[in-house]
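Exercise 7. Predict the structure of Acyl-[acyl-carrier-protein] dehydrogenase MbtN from Oryzicola mucosus.
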Amino acid sequence: MLYDMAHRFLSEEIEPRYEEFEKKEIFDRESWKKAGSAGLLCASMPEEYGGSGGTFAHESAIIEAISHVGVDGFGIALHNSIVAPYILHYGSEEQKQKWLPRMASGELIGAIAMTEPGAGSDLQGVKTRAEKDGNQYRINGSKTFITNGQLANLIVLVTKTDPAKGAKGTSLIVIETDEVEGFERGRNLDKIGLKSNDTSELFFNDVRVPTSNLLGTVEGEGFVQLMQQLPQERLQIGTTAIAMCERALALTIDYVKERKAFGKAVLDFQNTQFKLAELKTEVTIGRVFYNDCVARHLAGGLDPVTASMAKYWLSDLQGKVVDQCLQLFGGYGYMNEYPIARMFRDARVQRIYGGTNEIMKLLIARSL
Ligand SMILES: Cc1cc2nc3c(=O)[nH]c(=O)nc-3n(C[C@H](O)[C@H](O)[C@H](O)COP(=O)(O)OP(=O)(O)OC[C@H]3O[C@@H](n4cnc5c(N)ncnc54)[C@H](O)[C@@H]3O)c2cc1C
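Solution. The predicted structure, encoded as tokens:
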């Protein structure tokens, strides 16, 4: 029911304006608020904090609807199943009351700021520094490639509170950007895909926040908190991957039935049939694996290695499916007016963010 509702909302409210958001390279706040009113924000947060009291299965239904409708730049998945859980799992009661209901309504738009110009795969290299000064932190540093970076007004920031301790000196601190001075947004970065998402640079120049904005009871827990949340973040990339594969396949099957060459439908060529038979088989395998990962995650048992497998294998599959489907569209597949062209561009980053697929293989290899 939630999937149907999300699909209807996204088709009626977002899809008609999506081209405009792609051109402007940013969504509007109104769409976030509408999504909040429709119950699509914080579906897995408890009702006492303004959420819908659901689980990751509910988030999965919403993300699948986003990719099936084809509005992949709408950054609510990250807000819902990456940013909000940090506050739910590590926030104090006061922090949860303060931030989660406003995230559920769309008043606050969430971002997670880990990556820096000099620290991507190797997050231990984070240089952004938070120094204690009385009952405040003074924060200096810069972040890049931050999803929702222009719109976000609640940022979970990865900082060093004690650089000498390396990973153990890392802490997560929440910044409500409307309430601080010294915070600046840099460029809305010019990307090859996911154009409507405002991926940006962020700068922190002597930004002061109360020490009570720390997530967790003591400093230095940031790395452990990040590691604990990574399985869900990686699984969520798998959600987008499998749903986009399914959409690519459905669009392509429709197209090759209609398109004629040499006096017959493109589907009538044995090459087309074999290609699509292979892709359909692999996407079915991907779906079964994905569903199994979700079931394990809901039961509390999705280990980091399997989550890494899901992220890497499903995003690789997505790249392959979208590329081979585009080929069956011929020249039309290269035209932006055909959704498969945008899917080809949007799919590419899935193998890069959330930990690159090489890093995923490294994590899997450690378990051998
Ligand atoms: C559109 C987009 C949105 C993003 N959103 C966010 C966000 O919201 N928040 C955020 O914090 N970050 C975000 N990122 C950043 C993303 O997570 C990083 O780009 C990613 O982790 C890789 O880091 P890097 O770009 O510095 O690449 P690098 O770490 O410089 O890697 C370069 C290459 O080296 C390889 N490599 C690195 N280390 C190893 C190793 N040990 N063994 C083998 N190969 C290795 C990598 O796999 C890659 O192929 C986003 C990125 C993009 C493009």
